[in-house]
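User: Let's play a game. I give you a shape written as tokens, and you guess the letters that built it. Ready? Here's round one.
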């Protein structure tokens, strides 16, 4: 009965529906397993950095696609990452504890990226290493407002320890067949205004020249977070703040925070796949879902995103999932977006119907049926400025997306995605239809777990059971149109 396109019932797991995996022996098709370079791709410890010949490189890329699983998806990301300025690929921050515990995995994955000609800028911490060394040398320190009061003796140890961690990561990447360079003097700082803190600094800027130079030479820049003032005095600065300064300076496509937690976890310990900071942070804190270090990290992330375009994303994930995070839609950690606040209404009450009508009609370029607002709905997800919305109804006992619209002037800025994700959080199982000629269908096809085309209409669904799908298709095809003649140009 269908005209092709059938994708199967599938199920929504995590922040987005995952398209079916393609042949991938090593991962047995489970997109949720951590992924690692296959044997023979990440080279053994001790191998010298080698540049590939074009044939080797070709084989490497073919193997990469074989192993990452979903070729289409990985190819899209690879192309996206390679587009434009190579220094804008990604900034990756790795904390000291994570660095020490996952060095072989992390350096293997970073070496792997250099073989794909991708050179993320790494910035690392070294907190536990510093604590240990200060302890060994019996240098006492205290904390004031979360900052380590830093004596002259302590700053020398901090510098030494961070440079050592930096060197070890660079060497490990090289040993795995990639190339990297330690960048130790790039962070500019000035002394903290609270002089009681001693040699603690505030970041004033980043010298990007050595970073660009390393990338030009096909090396991953590994930035040590020690700051230096105008006189060359080392200062103790927070690695997260350095990472933020790097992101602001480089505007990368990805900002990834690597932690052993692997993401932001909710009260029951499960990774929260998606956070819209604007909409979720306060509620999550009030409900006690994120506390302590994670809450701090999220507040800092929000501060960072506040200064960047709303389309910027931050991912918190584990080093064990780095490659998968980069090359699959689903990823495996927490995907954070500043996002815009999307209102959720359960009835038409409180909705300005004229503005709503204008929004829908202007987006589709067609007139809504006269009685549209008399019909029962279950939810409206609405941008407070009436630039975008999703309208949900109950149909045949299932949730039906009746309208999804963003005004023309706001299209392409990510508002549709915000509305969509707000809707998905409430309605993880749903169906909808779209005119077969609608260009958005390629995106719908990626979002849905199943789709079927019938002449003018294509019906999509997410998370429906096999037994519901036939009913959903029948219902969607029978519905009378709610949009009529094209709007007359004004
Ligand atoms: C469909 C619509 C709501 C999308 O809103 P938007 O704010 O432009 O979408 P976003 O900028 O958030 O983009 C969301 C995704 O859709 C993709 N997309 C947007 N317009 C697209 C198009 N014309 N063709 C293919 N993909 C498109 C984007 O690339 C993006 O993909 P990504 O998440 O992989 O990056 C909006 O274009 C619209 O109102 N269209 C007219 C009404 C309509 O056709 N509604 C759907 C009827 S079923």
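Assistant: Ready! My guess for every position:
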């Amino acid at each position: 009965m269908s005209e092709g396109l059938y994708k199967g019932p599938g199920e929504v797991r995590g922040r987005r529906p995952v398209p079916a995996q393609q042949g991938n022996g090593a991962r047995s098709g489970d997109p949720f397993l951590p992924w690692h370079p296959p044997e023979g791709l990440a080279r053994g410890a001790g191998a010298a950095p080698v540049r590939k010949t074009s044939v080797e490189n070709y084989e490497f890329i073919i193997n990469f696609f074989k192993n990452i699983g979903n070729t289409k998806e990985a190819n899209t990301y690879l192309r996206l990452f390679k587009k434009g300025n190579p220094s804008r690929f990604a900034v990756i921050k790795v904390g000291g504890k994570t660095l020490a515990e996952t060095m072989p995995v992390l350096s293997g994955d970073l070496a792997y990226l250099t073989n794909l000609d991708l050179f993320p800028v790494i910035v690392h911490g070294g907190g536990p290493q510093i604590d240990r060394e200060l302890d060994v040398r019996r240098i006492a320190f205290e904390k004031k407002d979360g900052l380590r009061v830093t004596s002259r003796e302590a700053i020398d140890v901090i510098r030494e320890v961070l440079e050592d961690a930096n060197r070890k990561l660079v060497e490990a990447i090289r040993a795995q067949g990639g190339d990297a360079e330690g960048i130790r003097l790039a962070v500019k700082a000035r002394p903290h205004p609270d002089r009681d803190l001693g040699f603690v600094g505030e970041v004033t800027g980043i010298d990007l020249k050595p970073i660009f130079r390393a990338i030009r030479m096909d090396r991953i820049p590994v930035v040590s977070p020690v700051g230096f003032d105008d006189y060359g005095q080392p200062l103790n600065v927070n690695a997260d703040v350095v990472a933020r300064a790097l992101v602001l300076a480089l505007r990368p496509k990805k900002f990834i925070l690597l932690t052993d937690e692997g993401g932001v976890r909710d009260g029951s310990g499960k990774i929260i796949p998606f956070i819209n900071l604007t909409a979720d942070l306060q509620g999550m804190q009030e409900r006690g879902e994120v506390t302590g270090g994670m809450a701090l990290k999220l507040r800092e992330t929000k501060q960072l995103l506040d200064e960047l375009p709303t389309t910027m994303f931050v991912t918190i994930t584990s080093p064990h999932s780095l490659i998968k995070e980069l090359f699959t839609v689903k990823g495996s950690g927490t995907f954070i977006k500043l996002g815009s606040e999307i209102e959720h209404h359960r009835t038409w009450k409180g909705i300005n119907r004229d503005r709503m009508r204008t929004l829908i009609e202007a987006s589709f370029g067609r007139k809504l049926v006269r009685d549209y607002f008399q019909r029962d709905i279950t939810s409206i997800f609405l941008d407070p400025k009436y630039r975008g919305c999703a309208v949900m109804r109950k149909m045949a006992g299932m949730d039906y997306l009746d309208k999804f619209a963003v005004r023309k002037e706001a299209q392409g800025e990510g508002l549709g995605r915000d509305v969509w994700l707000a809707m998905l959080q409430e309605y993880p199982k749903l169906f909808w239809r779209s005119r077969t000629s609608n260009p958005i269908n390629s995106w719908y096809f990626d979002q849905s777990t199943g789709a079927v085309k019938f002449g003018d209409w294509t019906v999509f669904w997410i998370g429906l059971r096999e037994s519901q799908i036939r009913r959903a298709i029948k219902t969607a095809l029978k519905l009378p149109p709610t949009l009529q003649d094209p709007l007359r140009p004004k």
